[in-house]
Amino acid sequence: MRISNLKKRFVCLFLVFTLSFQSCSVYKKTTSTLNEAEKANLKTLVITTDNTKHRYSRIIKINDNYYGEVKTKGKIETILLSEEEIKSIRILDKTSSAIGNIAIVLVSVGGIYLIVSLIELANWASN
Q1: d(Cα 54, Cα 37) in Å, to the nearest integer?
Q2: I need a surface site. Which of 26, 43, 103, 111 has the fewest CB within 10 A?
Q3: In whole angstroms, how far apart are CA 106 and each of 16, 75, 114, 124?
Q4: H and E: helices and strands count for the chain
Q5: What is the pTM of this model?
């Protein structure tokens, strides 16, 4: 009975971690310009001169001003970006993000399988 509860807890814990890391985003290491970020039309990480990180769903240009779009509570807000305050701009790396998400799932499922197998093996050996 105790072994069965332990298996259920491990499986539940790993599934929670797997689902929580599903939406991880990997950004390119090289910095980009605002113009490149706007043309890419992807998630963007903007680091300001005070080392604050801002994540935008995309960068848009309206009347020679750049804005970052943020989704909050079902609405899209646009925030004016000042080029003087920007330290670096990094664009989402779709390939690395996809590989990372798949690797997280595979490692989690493999970990669950390994732990459940070890518990079953210990249970079988004790009988």
Answers
A1: 14
A2: 103
A3: 14, 34, 12, 26
A4: 3, 6
A5: 0.69
